[in-house]
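Quick one before lunch.
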Amino acid sequence: MLETATQSRGDLSPTTLLTSLDGVLQEWLPRQRWFAGKGLPITELAVVSMTELQPGCLHLLIRSRHTGERDGCYQLLLGVEEDPPPHLQHAVIGRADAGPLQGLTVYDALHDPRSAALLLERLRTPGAAGPLRFERDGQTEVPPGLTPRVLDGEQSNTSLVYGDLFILKIFRRIQYGTNPDLEVPRALGLEGCARVPAPVAWFWTAEPRGTTLGVLQPFLRDATDGWTMALQALATGDDFTDESFELGRATAEVHLALAEVFAPGLPDRQGGRRLASAMITRLEATARQVPALVPYMAQLRAAYGVVGARVPGQPDQRIHGDLHLGQVLWAGHRWYVIDFEGEPSRPIAERRRTQAPVRDIAGMLRSFEYAAHARRPWQPQWAQRCREAYCAGYASESAWDPRKQGALLRAYETDRAVYEALYEARHRPDWLPVPMAAIDRLAKGI
Ligand SMILES: Nc1ncnc2c1ncn2[C@@H]1O[C@H](COP(=O)(O)OP(=O)(O)O)[C@@H](O)[C@H]1O
Ligand SMILES: O=P(O)(O)O[C@H]1O[C@H](CO)[C@@H](O[C@H]2O[C@H](CO)[C@@H](O)[C@H](O)[C@H]2O)[C@H](O)[C@H]1O
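Model of the adenosine-5'-diphosphate complex:
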């Protein structure tokens, strides 16, 4: 155990710790789904914060620097032991070959039920551990001793499910400040919005800068996410328009609640021009990393014109920011919306700004197309029917109809497809053809 290591091997400090961890982390980090610096050499690792939650369990924020622009700060919970038990072998990161942990095995402690239980216990009893702060809503009862399990599946973060009652999302790539995935569901919960599971407890670090680290919320036990449902419908040839219509209604409801809770902002002509130029900048930056975009540049730039010319009308407001079929859960015959983090690669200040609600609609419309592309043969008509039903559902609940803003929707779909091209190139290169098919369609004005 680390206790033995620290007692017998001298002081553990951020600097000495790095001597032990540098080698193992250099090798392990780039293999993690949530690591943004894949493919770029790590020029430096630094320990931003280190808290020993209990002997053998270290909470760390690690900054990684690269030759490119993809520096990042990551949250890790590490276990350190001489010989981790067999059920933790899959979580082993490596053996430290120098420094105070020399000879000890380091593993991802989120896979260790003992550490997971410790986190839950901390969340149940608000307080501090070093710079870490644990808080809760004060109303929801969280029983002790719930059995933890790590949720598997494609995720940008890591989630632990406790006794099928609660889910704790541990943010992996950290940006300093309040994460909208705590701020928004909390505000919506206080307002009584039943479409969004409200945070029950959360933890953050006082240093650096009030940064959200994890959120516990009720686990919707028999839920299926929209992506899985859409793929099932495609596989069986089932219609998905009723669900799409309902999803449009749910999106509109969440938008209305967001507009109630957070002060809206009115778009102005200058704001539109700034936004159009930001979209162009993003397109150009992405094309430097995804050369397949280059032949489409002129047509894509032109699609953003309408954003620049946008007249005051539909007010900007807080939105979801990364809405797609994987962010909605179907449980008890209704849709719930989760994961209000926004697009993880964007700066947090930008994600917390008011934006056009059409951005979310475009995200979901793209998602129907994604699903239709994930199955062979590619079924564009299926996607088209879902897209239509989704917009109709949205219009039935909202004061405006997205179908009446076709050009604006197209501009946002284009921006979203550009984001997706970069996301796929970085995280799942095999998927790149999916957003590229949309780029081709959008560039042709179809
Ligand atoms: N409240 C919940 N109830 C049930 N499952 C959930 C809940 N919140 C998240 N999940 C599951 O966890 C997955 C990942 O959650 P999400 O917040 O999207 O994390 P990430 O940002 O890491 O992708 C979801 O796709 C869903 O399957
Ligand atoms: O991890 P998050 O859910 O926060 O979102 C990121 O990863 C998503 C993939 O898991 C990615 O979504 C893209 O693929 C989805 C299918 O896997 C599809 O439903 C979405 O429409 C498509 O954008 C998302 O863009 C990214 O931010």
